[in-house]
Design goal:
The chain contains 12 helices and 17 strands. By secondary structure, the chain is α+β, with helices and mostly antiparallel strands. The chain has 3 domains: about 80 residues, Rossmann fold (3-Layer(aba) Sandwich); about 60 residues, Dna Ligase, domain 1, CATH 3.30.1490.20; about 190 residues, D-amino Acid Aminotransferase, Chain A, domain 1 (2-Layer Sandwich). A hairpin with a 4-residue loop joins β13 and β14. The protein is globular. The N and C termini lie far apart (about 55 Å). The model has no long low-confidence stretch (mean pLDDT about 95).
Length: about 375
């Protein structure tokens, strides 16, 4: 049996964005100290951590020194080099393990791992050149989606191919290199299951959340979504089986397409807390970041029960294009809660914060959240 890491210990985070920030807040609330390591300073996580280490992830001497000063390490995004996770693991527990990182940070490895384990995905093929792409299109068909194998998120590194003649331009758009060609899924909606697994195999989840996107970026999340034909149970079962198959200790989000006939297809995995689970900070008994702390420290999980209907909307940097948003106007609805991530540079498309709103039901909550966001810019 693994001994728990008790409050008063120091937890390390590789990465320093908003997910690390919310992890640090949850950890400090429980009495832990938090250190963060990333190549930047004055970061969202660094602003609330006890210690901010500025070093490249491939500086393994710095990573080793960082790991020696903490009691356990986790990460807040999946593009941390596996070598950094493996280096840290020589000095303290790292959860999830580096192999989970290795799989999730490359679409091809992720798709192959899912398919080999029997999980439902869209048809896909590996592509390494323009000629291979043309050949793959004859088997996959059109429309199809070409995606870079590594380092893609929020729709980046993707191109839709609607007819074979667009192959050359799509290949140029994704920048060449290793890629994945996927069959285009005519989905009815996109949903996710955020779940956590402990060192003892314990499992908790936040149910099924519907996710509405704008320009390939998550825009609105509605927890408590009900799928037809027992879809909720199937989605949770698939999520649990994935965490067990990958031996995940920590939080992982499984993103699904729901097809027109109700079939569930796994789209992507995120081996850490997820944007679609941010509602849990305000609306759940225990938030996804609290579960991340508990999994890392081998503590029992808390309840994931939804306290009342809620919805979340993202706040992107575009909202600052006409100056400082009108925060008072957004907060005029007393059932709205504001979260800002401490980022100074409000670039278009950059996630700067989110709003969670409560309502009589999920749709009412979504209406309140979107209305509050609209009031930010008059």
């Amino acid at each position: 049996m693994t001994d728990p890491i008790l409050p008063g210990a120091t937890l390390g985070v590789l990465g320093s964005g908003q997910l690390g920030r919310m992890f640090a807040i949850a950890a400090r609330r429980m009495g832990y100290r938090v250190h963060t390591l990333s190549p930047a300073s004055g970061t969202p996580t660094g602003q609330v951590a006890d210690r901010e280490v500025v070093a490249a992830y491939d500086d393994l001497d710095a990573v080793a020194d960082f790991a020696r000063r903490v009691d356990a390490v986790t990460f807040e995004f999946e593009n941390v080099p596996v070598a950094a996770a493996d280096c840290a693991a020589q000095h303290c527990p790292v959860r999830p393990r580096g192999e989970v990182l290795h799989i999730a940070q490359n679409r091809l490895r992720e798709k192959r791992a899912l398919a080999e384990a029997g999980f439902p995905t869209a048809a896909f093929e590996r592509v390494t050149g323009s000629e291979e792409l043309v050949q793959a299109l004859t088997r996959i068909g059109t429309p199809a989606v070409l995606k870079t194998a590594g380092f893609g998120y929020d729709g980046k590194g993707q191109a839709v191919i609607r007819e074979p003649g667009e192959a050359a331009s799509a290949w140029a758009e994704v920048g060449g290199g290793e890629a994945v060609l996927e069959a285009f899924v005519d989905f009815e909606r996109e949903v996710s299951v955020v779940a956590a697994r402990g060192v003892d195999g314990a499992f908790v989840h936040y149910g099924v959340t519907e996710n509405r996107h704008r320009n390939h970026v998550l825009d609105v999340s509605l927890p408590g979504t009900v799928l037809a034909g027992g879809g909720n149970g199937r989605a949770v079962t698939i999520a649990r089986d994935i965490l067990e198959a990958l031996d995940v200790v920590g939080v992982l989000c499984v993103e699904f397409f729901v097809t027109r006939d109700g079939e569930l297809l796994v789209n992507e995995l995120a081996p850490r807390p997820h944007n679609s689970g941010h509602f849990s900070v305000d609306a759940s008994v225990t938030c996804q970041f609290g579960q991340q702390v508990r999994a890392l420290c081998a503590l029992p999980f808390g309840s994931t029960a939804l306290l009342q209907p809620a919805a979340m909307v993202n706040l992107l940097g575009d909202l600052w294009s006409q100056g400082e948003p009108d925060w008072a106007a957004a907060l005029a609805d007393d059932r709205v809660k504001l979260h800002l991530y401490g980022k100074d540079d409000a670039r278009p498309g950059r996630k700067m914060g989110h709003i969670t709103a409560f309502g009589d039901d999920a749709n009412d909550a979504a209406r309140r959240a979107e209305a509050a966001r609209e009031r930010l810019v008059g």
